[in-house]
Amino acid sequence: MGMIKLITELIDKQYGKPQGLLGTYIGEKMVKQHKPETLWTIELLNIVQGESVLELGCGAGYAMKLILDQTLVEQVVGVDLSPTIIRSAAIRNKNGLNAKKATLVQANVNRLPFQDENFDKVLSIHSIYFWENLSETFSEIYRVLKPGGYFVITLCDAKDDEIWEGIKSMIEDRLIPIAKENGFLNVALLKGPKSRQFHTIAVLGHKHL
User: Fold this and answer.
1) Which end of the chain has fewer CB atoms at under 10 Å, N or C?
2) 26 in a domain, yes or no?
3) pTM for the complete prediction?
4) Kind of pairing, strands 145-159 and 75-80?
5) Would you say 84 and 20 are in contact if contact means Cβ atoms under 8 Å apart?
6) C-alpha distances in Å from residue 164, one per residue of 105, 141, 152
7) Do the bridges between strand 145-159 and strand 162-163 make them parallel or antiparallel, or are there none, so unpaired?
8) What percentage of the chain has pLDDT greater than the value 70?
9) How far apart are CA 177 and CA 209, in angstroms?
10) What's the number of domains the chain is made of?
């Protein structure tokens, strides 16, 4: 049991900050696992021609590639803490990087290295579980969004008939109130598609014009 527990803990850590060969494998595994909610999130963004999009916790760059392939976006920037996973994202988005339409940055989500009012949309898919400080991160999201821009944060809150009370509480008691405290308007919770029996939801909020 000791070895099984050790392996389980190692894999769990890889989801937060993938490293090495195992981290590369985990990154590609997440690409396959999260396709339904990734496509849904991109639909929610409603990207129009000429917009600039920021993804927090970009992982192996699957959402970035879909955005570049499916929309008329001007620029997609992906931020992740893991240099391993950024390498995977760079391989997946080679054409976008070469065309100067994609950029990858290693950084912490609560200290974004971008100018104020730089992006039209901000998205994050299954990354919020690992954010160290929600208030600081939402303050940064608000700062880098242009007036009228908005964020979409996608996550799971249940599996089959099991409601995850910890996640539910985090959303109701912290995520939504913190988004409002940081100035976001029309903060809403939407139900999304099921993904491998997991219940997908998204929280959205707009910055004032």
Assistant:
1) N
2) no
3) 0.86
4) unpaired
5) yes
6) 32, 26, 20
7) antiparallel
8) 85
9) 20
10) 1
